Amino acid sequence: MFVCTNVRCKPVVYVVYWQQWGDIMLKANWILPARDMGTVSPLFKKDFHPEKQVKNATLRITARGVYEAHLNGQRVGNFIMAPGWTSYHHRLQVQSYDVTALLQADNTLILQLAEGWFWRLKNPQPQAIIAELHLTFSDGTEQYIGTDESWLVAESALRFCHLYNGIVYDATHSPVFNEAAAVAADNTQDLLIEQLGETVTEQERLSVKEVIFTPKGETVLDFGQNMTGYLEITVDAKAGDKLAFSFGEILDKDGNFYNDNYRSAKALYEYTCKDGKQTYKPNLTFYGFRYVRVDAYPSAIDPQNFTAIEVHSDLKRTGYIETSDPMLNQLFSNIIWGQKDNFLDIPTDCPQRDERLGWTGDAQVFVRTASYNFHVLKFFKKWLGDLKAEQFENGAVPDFVPSFYPRTPQISAAWGDAIAICPWQCYLTYGNTAILEDLFVPICKWVDYITNITTKPYLWFGSTQYADWLELGGVYGETKGPTRDDLVASAYYANTIDILCKVGKVLGKDVTAYETLYTRVVSAFKEEFKDDFKTQTEHVMALYFNLTDTPQAVADSLAALIHKEGDKLQTGFVGTPYILHVLSRYGYTDLAYTLLLRKEYPSWLYPITKGATTIWEHWDGIKPNGDIWPVSMNSYNHYAYGAVADWMYGVAAGINTVEEAPGFKKVHFAPLADHRIDWFKAEIDTENGKVSSRWWHENGKVRYELTTPVPATAIIEGKTYELGAGTYTF
Ligand code: BGC
Predict the structure, then answer these.
(1) Rg of the Cα trace of the chain?
(2) Please, what's the b/e burial string for 433-463 (b: 16 or more CB within 10 A of its CB; e: otherwise)?
(3) 499 Cα–ligand 1 center, Å
(4) What b/e readout covers 205-215, taking b as 16+ CB neighbours within 10 angstroms?
(5) Bridge-based pairing state of the strands 74-75 and 242-248
(6) Does the annotation mark 687 as catalytic?
(7) How many Å lie between the centroid of ligand 1 and the Cα of residue 487?
(8) Residue 727 contacts residue 706 (beta carbons within 8 Å)
(9) Neighbour count for residue 512 (Cβ, 10 Å)
(10) pLDDT at 345
């Protein structure tokens, strides 16, 4: 039970419906090697011979770490980095695999364990694994083969395996199973839950585009695409021959290999060969890379022997944008790749350096784009479950989820607000109310937390904020610009209360107290800031979150400021996703397109002139003169600025959800064309069918074609039309 103690809001008593955890019991024990194997990944083995005819066999398994299972030499399932990453001190997913087809008369089940994300855990228990094989015989009787001390353990050929630091593999090593497994001291199953998220699987296989010999004399394989996954190699070698590779996202200004931006992540790949032709890929870790430097290789390089395998959550693609402008198409491709590369079980900031964390701010700015590009409902439900589990008793929301310890998270506006923005967007895109039910109380707790800690009533003042993270216009090399912390925090506070009220109404809750709070917060914001906005982002906040009585004047002032600043973006993480929206909303569509189509730094297209195939963390990750941004914080695969795709879908193509008919039960079309683009089309495969919008120039006019599977309204050049299902041309 949670009692709202907020002094400025009517006391409300909530019943918190926490998911019942710990109701899965495996007829098995947590096992681990009886001795410390250091960095070596252990194998666990069980031989068995079913005594009767097997009708059905199911393997249920999870790990404190990551695992892979093989039955009779065959890989079980295709889940990479199973069991995935949850808030391990609250919950751990169990996977079930039907292995009936893999069974023989005599069977060998081998489980491999590596560290994965588990080392992030508070007071880490030793890595361990738990599994049960459930056999159902033709006569209806059953047998369970669970992990226990009868399992044998061996050191594997995987001598080292780390999430950030890569792998060391010795193919000459043959595992010797002559030790018994030990049952873990902490043999509880309290935290086990069924698999909730999508599985993570291998996706595209990319070939080497070019073998580059750099000025420094390095041999570098270019896969042509920055991506997340691993390298598969095939080599004909002698036992003891060494292979070594390094991974990078860019080449430096002289064309040499570069990966200082990985910071402490070593991303090793060291392989000792056995005799003969062999193929290997590491699959209990992953890398973020486009370039692979060959540091050791026993023979001449044949590009055909190298394949980059893309790995991410297995999400259904739903959204497509194509235009007559090749650079815009490349931008959209970069956004899609940025999403795939960072949706590996949780939404991460980046896939390569020593972070790869579920930063809440990044996820919330990108969620609308994400939900149009791919079907992400299940993916977000799982991650939001972890976010809810990690919300502090006082309502504070960590800045990334799952957390790791010891570390005190920074509690910041725009980051914590993911707790409201992500479920609300999932509701709008998919019409799913369960996600709102799940998050309603946590949203209230977050709002109450802010209400309780602020130093100025009805605003959020007095906390350290990430604010408009990576905004331009500040001290070079700093992560924050001139936009005021308290302004961003107060704007998000208002927006989240607004969402809370909408969620409450959908769910039939009494949100009167929060409606009153919202009115007061909006008034306090207007009173405090008096429409005196200093930066682009400050204007954007007030406009996008409806915090001004004179929006047109504020929009005019924003446009004037942008012109004064040379028609350049100055915005960071929180201003960037909304700036085009507010410009087009208040009559500055032309300027919005100018910003979108700008090719010089800073802009969305500038990185493409530098060869980007994913979205960069910084507008100037590589500067016009080829210099590289300081290594402290410089990823070339950060999806946040890719949020511009929601303007491309929602304004350029004009495809919008309708709040009263979520999940595209109705569509609102309002495309806004531009003379600098010959044609533009977008399509979203929604819960209710395919919605598409296309425009092109013909005889000095713009023609529009809209397709809707459901009733829709359309605003075309100022005129409103009511449409039934069908395709219409205007
Ligand atoms: C991450 C960001 C994140 C930020 C928080 C960085 O290290 O890469 O994307 O949101 O920290 O301020």
Answers:
(1) 27
(2) eebbebbbbbbbbbbbbbbbebeeebbbbeb
(3) 24
(4) ebebeeebebe
(5) unpaired
(6) no
(7) 20
(8) yes
(9) 13
(10) 98
Which residue in this structure is represented by tokens 């996202």? 249
DSSP state of 293: E
So what's the pLDDT on residue 124?
61
What is the Cα 80 distance to its own chain's centre? Answer: 16
Residue tagged active-site, from 198, 538, 617, 683:
617
Please report the pLDDT score of residue 25 as a whole number: 83
The owner of tokens 């902490």 is 186
- 263, 349, 480: residue to mutate for ligand 1 pocket, most atoms within 8 A of CB: 349
355 is catalytic: yes
Which of the residues 68, 355, 471, 538 is marked catalytic? 355
Q: Which two tokens stand for residue 593?
A: 């397109």
Q: What is the mean pLDDT of each run of 10 residues along the chain (730 residues)?
A: 35 37 80 95 97 96 97 98 94 97 97 90 77 97 97 98 96 98 93 96 98 98 98 98 98 97 95 98 96 96 98 98 98 98 98 95 98 98 97 96 83 98 98 98 98 98 96 86 97 98 98 98 98 97 98 98 97 97 98 98 97 96 92 93 98 98 98 98 98 97 98 97 98
- In 588-711, the DSSP E strands lie at 655-656, 667-669, 679-686, 689-698, 701-708
Q: Is the CB of 362 under 6 A from ligand 1?
A: yes
- As a whole number of angstroms, the distance between CA 263 and CA 244 comes to 19
The answer to whether the beta carbons of residues 344 and 227 sit under 8 Å apart is no
Which atom of ligand 1 has the smallest separation from the CA of 415?
Answer: 10
Angle ∠(360,599,336) on CA atoms, nearest 5: 40
Provide the pLDDT for residue 679. 98
Task: Tell me the three state secondary structure of residue 18.
Answer: coil
Q: Is 141 helix (H, G, I), strand (E, B) or coil?
A: coil
